[in-house]
Amino acid sequence: MDGAARDGAAGEAAAGKSDATPGEATGGVWCDRCGEPAGAGTHEACRVARTLEPPRFCPSCRRRMKVQVLPTGWRATCVEHGAVEG
Questions:
Q1: Residues with Cβ < 8 Å from 6, sequence gap 6 or more?
Q2: Rg (CA), the chain
């Protein structure tokens, strides 16, 4: 991914569960569960797993995120794009 595309996606962090492909729900180009391109395939298994699991990859830059699971939810942090909570 080039710098312009990454910069354009910077700051777009939203948590949520939807019918959109993981990554597409947050405006990212990468699946936030498996780290593969969001437009490649249906990511049906990722969509199902994300109803119970926090994201593992940043949808904007594909970096592995630091994830903390709490009794009240979760917090996933990308070193470049910040935190997402759910």
A1: 60, 61
A2: 12
Q: Please check the confidence at residue 50 and state whether its pLDDT lies above 60.
A: yes
Sheet holding 82-85, edge to edge: 66-70, 73-78, 82-85
Neighbours of 29 (CB within 10 A): 17
Note the residue count of the chain: 86
The model's pTM is 0.65
**pLDDT per position as a tens digit, 16-34:** 444 444 554 556 788 888 8
Tell me the two tokens of residue 60.
């904007």
Q: State the amino acid at position 11 in one-letter form.
A: G
